[in-house]
Amino acid sequence: MNKSVISFFKFVIIIGVIIAIAIPVAKKGFEMLDEKKYADIETDLLLIQAKVKVIKGKSDVNSNTDAYVGEKVSESNNDKVKETLKKIQISEENFDKYFILNSIDFEKMGIQSELKNKEDSVFVVNYNETEVIYTKGIKVDGKVKYKLSEIVKGVEKKEWILHNRMIE
User: Fold this and answer.
1) CA 59 to CA 57: how far, in whole Å?
2) What does the pLDDT read at residue 142?
3) How many CA atoms lie within 13 A of 67 on its CB side?
4) Nearest to 138 by CA among 126, 147, 129, 128
Protein backbone atom coordinates (compact mmCIF):
# COMPACT_ATOMS: atom_id res chain seq x y z
CA MET A 1 0.00 0.00 0.00
CA ASN A 2 0.99 3.50 -0.71
CA LYS A 3 2.23 5.74 2.16
CA SER A 4 -0.22 8.49 1.25
CA VAL A 5 -3.17 6.06 1.45
CA ILE A 6 -2.07 4.91 4.92
CA SER A 7 -1.63 8.53 6.01
CA PHE A 8 -5.11 9.33 4.68
CA PHE A 9 -6.65 6.43 6.68
CA LYS A 10 -4.82 7.58 9.83
CA PHE A 11 -6.13 11.09 9.24
CA VAL A 12 -9.71 9.83 8.79
CA ILE A 13 -9.47 7.71 11.96
CA ILE A 14 -8.09 10.64 13.97
CA ILE A 15 -10.85 12.93 12.70
CA GLY A 16 -13.44 10.25 13.54
CA VAL A 17 -12.08 9.91 17.09
CA ILE A 18 -12.07 13.70 17.55
CA ILE A 19 -15.66 13.94 16.33
CA ALA A 20 -16.71 11.02 18.53
CA ILE A 21 -15.29 12.84 21.56
CA ALA A 22 -16.37 16.38 20.57
CA ILE A 23 -20.06 15.65 20.02
CA PRO A 24 -20.82 14.36 23.55
CA VAL A 25 -18.67 17.11 25.09
CA ALA A 26 -20.51 19.79 23.10
CA LYS A 27 -23.86 18.21 23.96
CA LYS A 28 -22.99 18.24 27.67
CA GLY A 29 -21.84 21.85 27.37
CA PHE A 30 -25.17 22.91 25.85
CA GLU A 31 -27.06 21.01 28.56
CA MET A 32 -25.06 22.84 31.22
CA LEU A 33 -25.85 26.19 29.56
CA ASP A 34 -29.55 25.31 29.52
CA GLU A 35 -29.42 24.30 33.20
CA LYS A 36 -27.75 27.63 34.05
CA LYS A 37 -30.38 29.52 32.04
CA TYR A 38 -33.21 27.63 33.77
CA ALA A 39 -31.64 28.23 37.18
CA ASP A 40 -31.52 31.96 36.42
CA ILE A 41 -35.18 31.92 35.36
CA GLU A 42 -36.16 30.02 38.52
CA THR A 43 -34.30 32.60 40.60
CA ASP A 44 -36.10 35.41 38.79
CA LEU A 45 -39.45 33.72 39.37
CA LEU A 46 -38.74 33.35 43.09
CA LEU A 47 -37.58 36.97 43.34
CA ILE A 48 -40.72 38.20 41.60
CA GLN A 49 -42.87 36.00 43.84
CA ALA A 50 -41.20 37.40 46.96
CA LYS A 51 -41.90 40.95 45.80
CA VAL A 52 -45.49 40.03 44.88
CA LYS A 53 -46.00 38.69 48.42
CA VAL A 54 -44.73 41.97 49.89
CA ILE A 55 -46.98 44.04 47.61
CA LYS A 56 -49.94 41.76 48.40
CA GLY A 57 -49.29 42.06 52.14
CA LYS A 58 -49.16 45.86 52.01
CA SER A 59 -52.31 45.93 49.90
CA ASP A 60 -54.13 43.70 52.37
CA VAL A 61 -53.13 45.92 55.29
CA ASN A 62 -54.31 49.05 53.45
CA SER A 63 -57.35 47.32 51.91
CA ASN A 64 -56.23 48.79 48.62
CA THR A 65 -55.15 46.98 45.46
CA ASP A 66 -53.84 50.17 43.79
CA ALA A 67 -50.31 49.07 44.72
CA TYR A 68 -50.57 46.10 42.35
CA VAL A 69 -48.03 46.56 39.57
CA GLY A 70 -48.52 45.53 35.95
CA GLU A 71 -51.21 45.52 33.32
CA LYS A 72 -54.28 43.36 33.85
CA VAL A 73 -54.40 40.60 31.30
CA SER A 74 -58.11 41.33 30.79
CA GLU A 75 -57.22 44.90 29.69
CA SER A 76 -54.22 43.91 27.58
CA ASN A 77 -53.96 43.46 23.82
CA ASN A 78 -51.24 40.83 24.28
CA ASP A 79 -52.81 37.80 22.60
CA LYS A 80 -49.70 35.67 23.14
CA VAL A 81 -50.01 35.98 26.92
CA LYS A 82 -53.74 35.30 26.77
CA GLU A 83 -53.19 32.16 24.69
CA THR A 84 -50.53 30.93 27.13
CA LEU A 85 -52.91 31.42 30.07
CA LYS A 86 -55.67 29.54 28.24
CA LYS A 87 -53.16 26.78 27.46
CA ILE A 88 -52.52 26.29 31.19
CA GLN A 89 -56.23 26.15 31.99
CA ILE A 90 -56.80 29.71 33.17
CA SER A 91 -60.18 30.87 31.93
CA GLU A 92 -60.86 34.29 30.43
CA GLU A 93 -63.16 35.09 33.36
CA ASN A 94 -60.07 35.04 35.62
CA PHE A 95 -57.86 37.22 33.40
CA ASP A 96 -58.59 40.26 35.60
CA LYS A 97 -56.71 38.52 38.46
CA TYR A 98 -53.50 38.27 36.41
CA PHE A 99 -51.06 41.08 35.70
CA ILE A 100 -48.44 41.24 32.94
CA LEU A 101 -45.13 42.67 34.11
CA ASN A 102 -42.63 44.63 32.02
CA SER A 103 -39.31 46.32 32.70
CA ILE A 104 -40.97 49.51 34.00
CA ASP A 105 -42.95 47.39 36.47
CA PHE A 106 -39.73 45.73 37.64
CA GLU A 107 -38.28 49.20 38.25
CA LYS A 108 -41.36 50.16 40.31
CA MET A 109 -40.95 46.93 42.28
CA GLY A 110 -37.27 47.74 42.88
CA ILE A 111 -35.97 44.47 41.42
CA GLN A 112 -34.88 45.57 37.91
CA SER A 113 -31.16 45.29 38.64
CA GLU A 114 -31.50 41.87 40.30
CA LEU A 115 -33.32 40.11 37.45
CA LYS A 116 -31.35 38.18 34.85
CA ASN A 117 -34.25 37.92 32.34
CA LYS A 118 -35.88 41.31 31.93
CA GLU A 119 -37.86 40.76 28.77
CA ASP A 120 -41.24 42.44 28.66
CA SER A 121 -44.43 40.41 28.89
CA VAL A 122 -42.86 37.08 29.79
CA PHE A 123 -43.85 37.22 33.46
CA VAL A 124 -47.46 37.21 34.62
CA VAL A 125 -48.45 37.33 38.27
CA ASN A 126 -51.54 36.65 40.32
CA TYR A 127 -51.34 38.68 43.52
CA ASN A 128 -54.14 36.78 45.27
CA GLU A 129 -52.44 33.41 44.84
CA THR A 130 -48.88 34.82 44.71
CA GLU A 131 -48.37 32.73 41.58
CA VAL A 132 -45.80 33.72 38.97
CA ILE A 133 -46.07 32.48 35.40
CA TYR A 134 -43.22 32.40 32.89
CA THR A 135 -44.95 32.60 29.50
CA LYS A 136 -42.07 31.01 27.58
CA GLY A 137 -42.15 27.94 29.81
CA ILE A 138 -39.34 25.80 31.13
CA LYS A 139 -38.77 22.14 30.35
CA VAL A 140 -39.04 20.16 33.59
CA ASP A 141 -38.89 16.36 33.51
CA GLY A 142 -39.56 16.36 29.77
CA LYS A 143 -42.65 18.60 30.01
CA VAL A 144 -42.96 22.35 29.51
CA LYS A 145 -44.10 24.06 32.71
CA TYR A 146 -45.21 27.67 33.09
CA LYS A 147 -46.19 28.21 36.73
CA LEU A 148 -43.59 28.73 39.42
CA SER A 149 -45.41 26.23 41.63
CA GLU A 150 -44.87 23.59 38.91
CA ILE A 151 -41.30 24.59 37.98
CA VAL A 152 -39.61 24.81 41.36
CA LYS A 153 -39.87 21.75 43.52
CA GLY A 154 -40.79 22.44 47.12
CA VAL A 155 -42.74 25.60 46.37
CA GLU A 156 -46.25 24.93 47.49
CA LYS A 157 -49.24 27.15 47.39
CA LYS A 158 -49.87 28.22 50.95
CA GLU A 159 -52.94 29.61 52.53
CA TRP A 160 -52.15 32.48 54.86
CA ILE A 161 -54.38 32.63 57.89
CA LEU A 162 -54.52 35.62 60.16
CA HIS A 163 -55.69 34.97 63.65
CA ASN A 164 -57.32 37.63 65.76
CA ARG A 165 -55.94 37.45 69.24
CA MET A 166 -57.69 38.97 72.12
CA ILE A 167 -55.68 40.56 74.88
CA GLU A 168 -57.07 39.56 78.23
Assistant:
1) 5
2) 80
3) 17
4) 147
